[in-house]
Write a structure and sequence with these properties.
The complex is a heterodimer. Chain A is of the alpha+beta class. Chain A has helices spanning about 15-25, 50-65, and strands at about 1-10, 40-45, 70-80. Chain A has one domain (about 1-80): 2-Layer Sandwich (Mth169, Chain: A). A three-stranded antiparallel β-sheet of chain A has the order 2-1-3, covered by helices on one side. Chain A is elongated. By secondary structure, chain B is an alpha/beta fold. Chain B has one domain: Class I glutamine amidotransferase (GATase) domain (Rossmann fold, 3-Layer(aba) Sandwich). Chain B is built from five helices and eleven strands. Chain B has helices at about 15-25, 70-75, 85-95, 150-160, 220-230; strands spanning about 1-5, 30-35, 45, 80-85, 100-105, 110-120, 135-140, 145-150, 165-170, 185-190, 195-200. In chain B, strand 10 (about 185-190) and strand 11 form a beta hairpin. Chain B starts with a strand and ends in an 8-residue tail after the last helix. Classes of the chains: A alpha+beta, B alpha/beta. Chains A and B meet through helix 1 of A and loops of B.
């Protein structure tokens, strides 16, 4: 089982890196790019039997470590077809 | 009095802090490795600058799980004076011992320069010997010192007088130009509600001797010596 965790700065939080990337894209001529928000992506390979269990574990991980709730929010996708860990997924 | 200087893998201002309290101020000091579970009976704790755990994930995010942080948490809860400098401040934020979080500097550059900060509050163990409004010239060296707190938290910080240091001009004016990293309300340092935990991005320990360009930072460390020796602050044991 695989969980994908996308961590991004909350909309209300200024993103200096995203702004810099947007400016660089404008320099390259991509004037159609209105805004860029930079985030982090985590891929967790999990020993979980159900998608629900995988989501619960990934949510805990995001709450405790992967995201800082003061400035960041996160979104989780579960890929049940992802390579199961040895011994899991009967 | 005795200082504990916590050492995380990647701390690089631990010796600066040790030197300042041990050799400049003549106090007892000991390094405490992050795997330790005790602070060795110290009267004050310094979390030094650096790049604890390589700043992986977020600055301070991994360091907060180091065993020593349980001891720091207990010490802080008991009223003991704790100073987080730069990366140490970031660790205190991630550990929830101080409110808010750090964003990348608005310049998106590592800022390494001397700045001016104004002492906003003198009723913390680390500003006791300062004058209200005193201007200190001390260096910063960070890439993520852009302090952020949600509006409600910020309002509470200001109302409780928890903003201890603010970036200003040499004359003490709070201006956008004197803000080196984009910190909200020009915040350079804050304290906990109990006022015994203080975090700041500038490095007072690197400004304790004139040959280093400034000795303005010494008063911060002198303050806690005064606070402890006068019995103004202590962890209840």
């Amino acid at each position: 089982m695989r969980a994908r965790v996308f961590v991004t700065l909350k909309p209300s939080v200024f993103d200096p890196q995203g702004t810099t990337v947007a400016e660089a894209l404008h320099t390259l001529g991509y004037s159609s790019v209105a805004d860029v928000r930079q985030g982090k992506y985590f891929e967790l390979t999990l020993d979980a039997n159900t998608p629900e269990e995988a989501r619960r574990i990934a949510t805990e991980a995001a709450d405790k470590l992967l995201a800082n709730p003061v400035i960041e929010s996160y979104r989780i996708e579960i890929d049940a077809a992802g390579a199961p860990a040895a011994g899991a997924g009967r | 009095m005795k200082f504990a200087v916590v050492v995380f893998p990647g701390s690089n201002c631990d010796h600066d802090a040790y030197h300042a309290v041990k050799h400049v101020l003549g106090q007892d000091a000991a390094f405490v490795w992050h795997k330790e579970t005790s602070l060795g009976g110290a009267d004050a704790v310094i979390l030094p600058g650096g790049f604890a755990h390589g700043d992986y994930l977020r600055t301070g995010a991994i360091a907060r799980f180091s065993p020593v942080m349980q001891a720091v948490r207990r010490f802080a809860a008991a009223g003991g004076p704790v100073l987080g400098i730069c990366n140490g401040f970031q660790v205190l934020l991630e550990a929830g011992l101080l409110p808010g979080a750090m964003l990348r500097n608005r310049s998106v550059q590592f800022q390494c320069e001397h700045v001016y900060v104004r002492v906003e509050q003198t009723d913390t163990p680390f500003t006791l010997a300062c004058r209200q409004g005193q201007i200190l010239r001390i260096p910063i060296a960070h890439g993520e010192g852009n302090y952020y707190a949600e509006p409600a938290v910020l309002e509470q910080l200001e109302r409780n007088r928890q903003v201890v240091f603010r970036y200003t001009t040499v004359a003490g004016a709070v201006t956008d130009d004197s803000n080196p990293n984009g910190s909200i309300n020009n915040i350079a340092g804050i304290c906990s509600e109990g006022r015994n935990v203080v975090g700041l991005m500038p490095h007072p320990e690197r400004a304790c001797e004139l040959p280093l360009g400034s000795a303005d930072g010494l008063v911060v460390l002198e303050s806690v010596v005064k606070a402890v020796t006068q019995g103004a602050v202590a962890a209840t044991r």
